[in-house]
Every structure is written in C-alpha cells, then in structure tokens.
Design brief:
Strands 1, 5, 6, 9, 14, 15, 16 and 19 form an eight-stranded antiparallel beta sheet that branches. A six-stranded antiparallel beta sheet has the order 7-18-10-11-12-13, with no helix packed on it. A three-stranded antiparallel beta sheet has the order 2-3-4, with no helix packed on it. The longest helix has 21 residues, at 5-25. With 229 residues, the chain is mainly beta. The chain contains one helix and 19 strands.
Length: 229
C-alpha cells in the first residue's frame, strides 16, 4: 500500500535528509591552490599511474614519485584516500632537500573515525604535520639544534583547528627566525629559538605515517614543497 498524507510527507523528508547527509560526506576536493615560487615538488590526485592496489602519485615537478603499496586510492570526489590500515608510512626513494626557507602546502580532510594521533607528512628531523582527532587540531612541529644546549634537538610547535570530515587548506612557512602555520587563511606563528647550523641538505620524507601508532586516515591532495631565497 502506498503511503499517503502525513506518512508520505515524513518518508519524503527522511529521504531528502539522507541525501543531504550523503552529499555532505562527499564534498568535492578543493581546486588547486596558488602555488608559490621556488616549487620543488607537487603531488595530486589528477596524476596517478598504475592499477590498484599499487598506485604511484607522480611528482609533477621532479622525479620523487610516491609509490603506495595498497592502502591508498583515488576518491571519486577528488583527492587521495588513505584507509588507515598501513603499518608503516611510505618513505620516498629520494631524500628531500630542505632549507631554513621552506614552504609546505597540502589540502587535508581527516576521517571522522581515524586514530587519536596521526602524522600525514614527516620530513625526518626537520618538520611534520601531526593531527589529534579528539581535539580536531593540527600541530606543526619543527626540529632544530638548541643554542643553549649544544647538540640537543628541540621542537618548536604551533597548532590550529582542523575539523575531521571537512577539507582544510594548510600551509607551513618556515624562515630562519620563525615558523607559520596557516589553515584556511588563519595564521598562527611561533619563533624558532634554535639554529640551523647542522641542518642537512636533504632528509628522508615519509607520507601517511610518522611513528608508532600515528597512521593517518583520511583524504589529502595537492601536497607541495618550495624553497625560497
């Protein structure tokens, strides 16, 4: 029997609500950001080669391509989806050049059911983007050598809100004296009290995992690095 009157109206309302909720979960990935001068690498979901489960995200600037072993896919709405099952992150084949004048950018959309602590990007001993799910908060950590205690590594940190289940545009700008984190145009800055005297010219680069129990789960896109002079 077909529902009529109020019952049919309620059923229609429920159908519309479900459709709206579903559409909210598949919001399209943002368009490409404005890329800075001095670009040294750029990866995004529009340039992926191979067949699942082994996909390679092409470095559009250099040759440091990201080869994923099975826990990454290209989302229908755009972006690269990491499913959170990885036991280790991807370490890129080539070390990545770093300097005291460095820019990192990425669009990220953490999963609402991801683990408490997650690391999306980790430049070993230089900087990382670490997400804390319960707080909906992204922290940028920067490693240096302390002027006060020679040889001891210290971490300078700055953080901003990044909600799960929603795209956020993130940029990190490191200078000799300070580090700035920008999320959707909102900045937060911290001084860098250490020294870059012993900074290597290149460091290992990890994607999707930064240590024990820090596997990233969610979407990302338009990851790029740049060096400025």
């Amino acid at each position: 029997m077909r529902a009529t009157g109020p019952r049919r109206w309620v059923a229609s309302l429920l159908f519309v609500s479900v459709c709206v909720a579903a559409s909210a979960q598949v919001a399209p990935a943002p368009a490409a950001p404005e890329l800075p001068a001095g670009l040294t690498a750029h990866w995004h979901s529009g340039k992926v080669i191979g067949r699942p489960p082994a996909l390679t995200v092409v470095d559009l600037v250099g040759s440091n391509h990201i080869e994923f072993p099975g826990w990454l896919s290209v989302a229908p709405e755009g972006g690269l989806l990491i499913d959170g099952t990885q036991k280790a992150g991807v370490r890129l084949a080539q070390k990545y050049p770093v300097s005291p004048r460095f820019t990192l950018g990425v669009d990220m959309n953490p999963a609402i059911d991801g683990p408490e602590h997650q690391t999306l990007v980790y430049l070993y001993g230089f900087c990382e983007l670490r997400y804390r799910a319960s707080r909906g908060e992204l922290t940028m950590n920067v490693w240096q050598i302390s002027r006060e205690e020679a040889g001891k590594q210290i971490i300078s940190s700055v953080r901003l809100p990044v909600p799960a289940g929603k795209w956020s545009r993130v940029q990190v700008v490191i200078s000799p004296e300070s580090a700035r984190l920008v999320v959707d145009g909102v900045p937060a800055e911290t001084p860098l009290p250490g020294t870059w005297e012993f900074l290597p010219t290149a460091v290992p680069l990890f994607i999707g995992f930064g240590g024990s129990d820090r596997a990233y789960k969610g979407l990302f896109n338009h990851l790029y690095f740049a060096e400025t002079r």
